[in-house]
Amino acid sequence: MKTIPPTHGRRWTAGLLVALALLTIPAAARAHAAPDRADPKVGSTIPVSPRQVRIWFDSVLEPAFSSIEVHAPSGARVDDGHGRVEPSDPRLLAVDVPQLSPGTYRVAWSVVARDGHRTSGDYTFTIR
After folding, report:
1. How buried is residue 105: exposed, middle or buried, by Cβ count under 10 Å (0-12/13-18/19+)?
2. Fewer CB atoms < 10 Å away: N or C end of the chain?
3. Where are the domains of the chain?
């Protein structure tokens, strides 16, 4: 019976560990909830004020740890303060807004996916 020199066994084990790590990195990257689409659209210019600002994500969200805010051109918060993950669609984060004046608004969001990973971001839209 041929024996494998100890250095070959260590190289093989190290190679296997590297391969396993590379295979798990894409799965870990997908674990973070990322925005899929938004209404109003990211960077869009719309003719009238929306009633809601909504963001759909590619993962199910944890309602207790997810939030959304809308800020006026002045920086003041203008949403109703009741951002929520919609019970009928656990990938949808939404907040109601009053009638907004023309200007550029910033939407800031922070979400936690069901697996516990947090992501956050922001975007703007403009009302003519």
Report:
1. buried
2. N
3. 1-30, 35-127
